[in-house]
Automatic annotation (TrEMBL):
One Pfam assignment: Penicillinase_R
Protein name: Putative transcriptional regulator
Organism lineage string: Bacteria, Bacillati, Bacillota, Clostridia, Eubacteriales
Keywords attached to this entry: DNA-binding, Transcription, Transcription regulation
Gene Ontology molecular function: any one: DNA binding
InterPro entries per the UniProt record, alphabetical: BlaI_family, WH-like_DNA-bd_sf, WH_DNA-bd_sf
Superkingdom, natural source: Bacteria
Family the entry assigns: Belongs to the BlaI transcriptional regulatory family.
Alphabetical GO biological process terms: negative regulation of DNA-templated transcription
Length: 118
């Protein structure tokens, strides 16, 4: 699977697909209407863009959608893009900014354990 650049609207549709796949475009549209407030045309336009980017695969009958990109890989790429954009590529600066915010003791302890595992 490859990683493609996804816009926020595309990520919203991909979240539905990752959660429900294989899932019909109709069901995606119904879920998007309920959770995001989008109409059918908006949802189908974004599905078309995802098909064009090879992030989704469409199979018939019933316009069934399955992902061609992994959620973990997209998250990794999006996180790196954020670090590059806001922290000049410095993971150290990103992490420092992250832990300086209001984290609970439990959250800090969990982060400490994650670092120790590495």
């Amino acid at each position: 699977m490859t990683v493609v650049k996804l816009f926020d609207s595309e990520l919203k549709i991909m979240d539905i697909v990752w959660d429900k796949e294989p899932v019909s475009a109709k069901e995606i549209s119904l879920i998007a209407a309920e959770t995001i407030g989008w109409n059918k045309n908006t949802t189908y336009t974004i599905i078309k863009k995802l098909l064009d980017k090879n992030a989704l695969r469409r199979t018939e009958p019933n316009f069934i959608c399955t992902s061609l990109v992994q959620k973990a890989e997209v998250r990794k790429a999006e996180t790196q893009s954020l670090i590059d954009k806001l922290y000049n590529g410095s993971k150290k600066a990103f992490f420092a900014s992250f832990i300086e915010n209001d984290l609970t003791e439990d959250e800090l302890e969990m982060l400490k354990k994650l670092i120790e595992k590495r």
